[in-house]
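ok new one. same drill as before - structure tokens go in, u give me an amino acid for every spot. 91 of them this time. try not to just spam alanines like last time pls lmao
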């Protein structure tokens, strides 16, 4: 299975880093590393995340990584990372 990131998910990573960097650049880097490594776990266990029923006809799941939520879609041969945000963010 291969991993592909949506442009919005990549934008989310940049946005989170820039926000965290203002307070603690080391913590910002560690957070981005942790979020970037999460798809490796998904490759190993594709259905590790909770399936979201509101995406009928698609297998969209969410995985919590610390205080962050990563949404991804499973297809037959791909993991598509859709979005990433902190769970305290106003969504």
């Amino acid at each position: 299975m291969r991993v592909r990131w949506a442009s919005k998910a990549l934008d989310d990573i940049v946005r989170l880093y820039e926000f965290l960097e203002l307070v603690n650049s080391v913590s910002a880097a560690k957070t981005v590393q942790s979020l970037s490594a999460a798809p490796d776990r998904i490759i190993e266990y594709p259905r590790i995340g909770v399936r979201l029923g509101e995406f009928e006809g698609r297998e969209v799941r969410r995985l919590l990584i610390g205080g962050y939520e990563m949404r991804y879609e499973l297809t037959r041969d791909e993991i598509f990372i859709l979005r990433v945000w902190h769970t305290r963010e106003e969504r």
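The chain has a mean pLDDT of 96. and btw Residues 17 and 53 are 30 Å apart (CA to CA).
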